[in-house]
Amino acid sequence: QLQLVESGGGLVQPGGSLRLSCVGSGFTLDYTVIGWFRQAPGKEREGVSSIGSSDGTTYYADSVKGRFTISRDDAKNTVYLQMNSLNPEDTAVYYCAAGGDTDYGGLGPLDWYDYWGQGTQVTVSS
Question: By Cβ atoms counted within 10 A, which residue in 21, 94, 96, 121 is the most buried?
Fold first, then answer.
């Protein structure tokens, strides 16, 4: 069974940091483009970042550039999202998703991704 499991969410004060993890089971993530998405209450799900399968090309939404970093550890079959300088606007449920084996050339639309995790809640509040 192909599955993605996110972890690492929680409550953090403005200016703080969190590292989210996305672990794959049933398939190897190193041959797959992995994206991070988020959905805030009352808003549509939006792309945050993605990392390519071959050369590890990364993409970021403008709202998180310079603050978030995506990386992968193929030995652990895990993709990370390091989030720094968090602000209340970053509050959302964060999802990781597995796309194709070739670089989309950007974050890609939601329907380009085939498998989704269950999400992890990130709350930024004082």
Answer: 96
Residue 105 is encoded by which pair of tokens?
């050339």
Q: Which amino acid is at 10?
A: G
Question: What are the strands, taking DSSP E only, across 13-91?
Answer: 18-25, 34-39, 46-51, 58-60, 68-73, 78-83
Q: Which residue has the tokens 């989704």?
A: 116
Q: What pLDDT, in 10s, does the model give residues 73-87? A: 989 999 999 999 999
Nearest by Cα to 93 from 60, 113, 64, 120: 120
**The two structure tokens encoding residue 63:** 């709202």
pLDDT under 50: residue ranges of the chain: none
